[in-house]
Amino acid sequence: MSQEQGITPRAKDFSAWYNDAVMRAELADYSPVRGCMVIRPNGYAIWELMQAALDRMFKDTGHRNAYFPLFIPQSFLAKEAEHVEGFAPEVAVVTRAGGKELEEPLVVRPTSETIIYDSFAKWIHSYRDLPLLINQWANIVRWEMRTRLFLRTTEFLWQEGHTAHVDEADAEREARQMLAVYRRFDEEWVAMPVITGVKTDSEKFAGALRTYAVEALMQDNKSIQAGTTHNLGQNFAKAFGVQFQTADGGLDYVWNTSWGVSTRMIGGLVMTHGDDVGIVCPPRLAPVQVVVVPIYRSDEERAAVLAAAEQAARTLRDGGVRVELDAREGMKPGAKYYEWEGRGVPLRLEVGPKDVAKGQVFAARRTGGKAPIPVAGLTDGVRAALDEIQAALFKAAVERREANTRRGVTKDELLAMMAGEGGFAYGGYCGNEACEQAIKEATKATIRVLPDEEFRSPTAPARCAWCGSKSVVEAVWSKAY
Questions:
Q1: What is the CATH number of domain 283-392?
Q2: Rounded Cα–Cα distance for residues 233 and 209 (Å)
Q3: Is the per-residue pLDDT at 77 higher than 90?
Q4: CATH classification of 14-273, choosing from 3.40.50.720, 3.40.50.2300, 3.30.930.10, 3.10.580.10?
């Protein structure tokens, strides 16, 4: 996209703005394979930072990485009835390979519960082998009809955790622990506030006992699922014969969990923080946290300015800051600013002759505001600015979410809200799936979660927002990606 073309304003067409922002930042490109995308270096660098943060958190909670095959025998999916029914419409199947028909078709991995639990059945013998805590970084194929870069593609990258436990209580602790890990990642790294809770039976993972989710509200007031964890009970263990000898000498089936987040999180980052210039990267996930731009008008100024800019970049790099020096010749500073702003770089340091004379750099924040930083304390000054930007992005996102949240909605308010601006609508729910389906058909909104206590309204709703009968739980409705 050229500078002359600009970018579609969010208020005019949020969907077009999103695509423009992704393309302008060179995060991804379209593929010749329908529904698939090419993740470009700028986008993959964000994913690598996400991976690194999450991987540390997984290992800190005792999980280890492994890798399992991309191809799964079709009969494996059929062993768990709910699972195969839930994924059947999205499954890609290989029927011919090596120049001949396969004796058994192979499913291209839509998720890995079945192939992993086949291995678990070989590895687990005793209660001493439990818990078994495994994570996999992998690609996934789900045949999507309507695709959007990062948000929904036929192939995507993700991590999937799979664990086995001695009893339901330990599996439940695991599912809840990983929900907290995802929340921490979303809020501390992505600067994206979330709400947590349990999914309704109609929205839970196929084959799960319970599904928990973290949900975030985007700038267009649609929700994005920013991580899910599943207590799978003993369903898969029974299907795949994953048994262990108990402490008292008996035989029992393990309790499993699975959990995952994907490259969809990059789309969530874009839609949470972007503006009409393009994406805004929270500093903790910015591949380039700082760009240094030397500014000079003559050859006499050039040598001193370049030397100061190079020294500033070197100092920051030595201090662990991800920094780029943009000393390209024949390109005006304004054109450089435009390019780096479009890539979402949080902080730009301008170095001109006056700055050299004063022993400073001039810092321009991607989110607005300029101030000098003394060269003598450059690393500390830059780190403080980056921390402030990170905190300010989170604060702004929280305020935006709260401004677009309504509690105690009535049926008319729910209808009006979803026909209008959207947002998070809290209301009473009778627990009847017919009401849940009627709301979905009338509004295209779904129950995102039955919120955890921390996110519930101060006063529990007495009546179902839809049918008016007694409420058994509070629900959060929203349209979603």
A1: 3.40.50.800
A2: 5
A3: no
A4: 3.30.930.10
